[in-house]
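[job 0412] stage=complex_fold ligand=NAI status=START
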Amino acid sequence: MGTFAVTGAASGIGAATARLLEDAGHTVIGVDLRNARIEADLGTAAGRRAAVDGILSVSGGTLDGVAAIAGVGPDLKDAGAVMSINYFGPVALLDGLRPALAATGAGRAVAISSNSASTVPLVDEELAGLALAGDEHAARDRARAAQAGLPPELAASAPSITAYATSKLALARWVRRTAVTPAWAREGVLLNAIAPGAVLTPLMRGSTDGAADRDVDEFPTPMPLGVFGEPEDIAFWVHQFLRPEARFATGAVLFVDGGTDAAMRPDGY
Ligand code: NAI
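[job 0412] stage=complex_fold status=DONE, emitting structure tokens
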């Protein structure tokens, strides 16, 4: 049985993923702010270092897989923190754990992006560029400036919407750029992203102003399957990417969103 690190393990999609892996007999090293084996704030450089060190210490330096799931929603008031937690957190964690994944010869890594990256019109390309350049300080400043320019209604309900969608776009691009580099691909470490849509978790309930508790057909984005997702619906696909048998997919971004992205951008491919 394998050893897997899962961030965001205390709630929602991360908790469902940890449960699925444990039920399959694996050892899970959960990371979260609270209620996890390793408690660390992935929004800070010190917290990321502590998380990587803690995982390496518990695992003995060898990992079968990493699922970087922890994140915050667009309702967070500090758009700079959204960039730090949703982009710089998973990137530092995955980079830091790459050698432990390479040590098995068949490591697997998954990052959680979002269909907001392709369906929210407020994505800021310059902000994505700053993130991909690794400039956290400038990215935080730019995210806060974008926040200040939002129309009042949006600023009240989703103050970090630009940072949220852009952090998830940048993360998907980072996965695509990184997965094909020799340090990952030729070391047998496969790296993929999942882009969920509306999934019933505390994050979604906090971010959608109660829309999740109303009729699915009144949701702001189309939901072709007529249902919201459950955390287990995403955990299933995370698990597939983490399996050793998942041998030929790397740099993929898989929409698991009930059809929202396909409905909104049928020709966006
Ligand atoms: P959730 O709120 O249920 O779980 C997120 C977990 O991340 C929480 O346990 C939280 O404590 C942890 N976390 C937040 N900030 C952290 C930090 N600084 N350091 C360490 N841990 C931190 O939310 P959910 O929905 O399970 O979200 C998981 C991921 O899925 C997130 O990256 C989110 O952006 C993404 N996502 C969720 C969607 C949804 O509709 N629920 C849609 C698209 C993407």
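The pocket of NAI is lined by residues 8, 10-14, 32-33, 41-43, 69-72, 85, 112, 114, 196, 198-199, 201-204, 231 (CB under 6 Å).
[job 0412] exit 0
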